[in-house]
Design a protein that fits this description.
With 292 residues, this protein is an alpha/beta fold. It has two domains: 155 residues, 3-Layer(aba) Sandwich (Rossmann fold), CATH 3.40.50.720; 120 residues, N-(1-d-carboxylethyl)-l-norvaline Dehydrogenase, domain 2, CATH 1.10.1040.10. It is built from 13 helices and eight strands. It has an eight-stranded mixed sheet, with helices on both faces. α1 links the parallel β1 and β2. The longest helix is centred in the middle third of the chain and has 27 residues. The two termini are 46 Å apart. The mean pLDDT is 96. The structure holds ligand FVH. Ligand FVH binds next to α1 and α4.
Length: 292
């Protein structure tokens, strides 16, 4: 939507799992849509759903002022757009990439005459176009583009604009995915401990969910430490106690015949911070070891 009440035509390049969900959300909302996919058999069914199917990416780009790309990676984006005329286009890149890739892609697009917005999708295909699912997209880059195209961008998922720096959407995206990766590691270790031990995984799962939910506000404490510079503020369980407790975690892993390889890198950092004389802190000081 171009904020005049008209549903403006938009072009979508990429009809993988995510692109397909995006296309269906825009079509369901009544947006005129032109689609293109490298493997044309994935695009053809969209003609029956009301989309215009372009034969080439350049033709698809020419069809609309708003062009959204959702491809495998940044290399695919460069390849797909190589022959497209981007002058006067609003280019929104929902392909997952690094902050540096997003900044380089923004410069590349602007040199070709386009406004550029990068997006980091915090959702999975089934939640796209589902109001109340909690899914959203981080956006960064041209604020003018974001504001002008907001109604169309808000159809597949919620929107969170995080700044003019085109790398910021990717940075937020990857930081949250990194936090999730750590959670997956902890959950994997926990299930390894109870596996084949007369504890049913289905009974254990809600305990894991409740515990992680109760512990999640730990992130607010970390933020408070980093903002104040006082890593001891509000600490209830200090590093000295936790390092002591780590030996119980490791011994239990040994008793249960489970490798502790998912835990030991973090524990080693905790021990280094303790050895540096910070036993009265929580674990925030580990961040200093990672970044300095
Ligand atoms: N699916 C998910 O759960 C996640 C959720 C969070 C965001 N990611 C990112 O979204 C991007 C697209 O992901 P996807 O799920 O649609 O991925 P695929 O189903 O594997 O589809 C990939 C599409 O990219 C096309 N493609 C690949 N290489 C090229 C190329 N060199 N030139 C042009 N197009 C290319 C591919 O085309 P084809 O193989 O069908 O011909 C698909 O359209 C991604 O960044 C996720 O990290 C998804």
């Amino acid at each position: 939507n171009d904020n005049t009440g008209e549903k403006s035509r938009l072009t979508l390049l990429g009809l993988g799992a995510m692109g397909t969900a995006l296309a269906r959300a825009w079509l369901a909302a009544g947006h005129p849509l032109t689609v293109w996919n490298r493997t044309s058999s994935r695009a053809e069914p969209f003609a029956a759903e009301g989309a215009a199917v372009a034969g080439t990416a350049a033709e698809a780009v020419a069809a609309s002022d708003l062009v959204v790309v959702c491809l495998l990676d940044d290399v695919s984006v460069g390849e797909a757009l190589a022959d497209a005329d981007l002058r006067g286009k609003d280019l929104v890149d929902l392909t997952t990439g690094t902050p540096a890739q997003a900044r380089a892609r923004a410069e590349w697009a602007e040199k070709r005459g386009a406004r550029f917005l990068d997006g980091g999708i915090m959702a999975v295909p089934p939640t796209i176009g589902t109001p109340g699912s909690g899914g959203y997209v981080f956006y960064s880059g041209s604020r003018a583009l974001f504001e002008a195209r907001h109604s169309a961008l808000a159809i597949p998922a919620g929107t969170r604009y995080v700044g003019e720096d085109p790398g910021f959407a990717a940075l937020h995206d990857v930081a949250l995915l990194s936090a999730m990766t750590g959670m997956f590691a902890g959950v994997s270790h926990a299930f390894a401990l109870i596996r084949d031990k007369d504890i049913a995984p289905k009974d254990f799962a809600p305990l894991v969910v409740d515990w992680l939910t109760a512990m999640a506000p730990y992130a607010y404490g970390v933020a408070d430490h980093l903002e104040s510079g006082d890593y001891t503020k509000g600490v209830v369980s200090n590093l000295a106690m936790m390092v002591e407790g780590n030996s119980t975690l490791l011994r239990t892993a040994g008793e249960q015949g489970v490798s502790a390889e998912l835990l030991t890198p973090f524990m080693a950092l905790m021990e280094r911070r303790l050895a540096d004389g910070h036993g009265d802190e929580g674990t925030t000081g580990v961040i200093d070891l990672l970044t300095r």
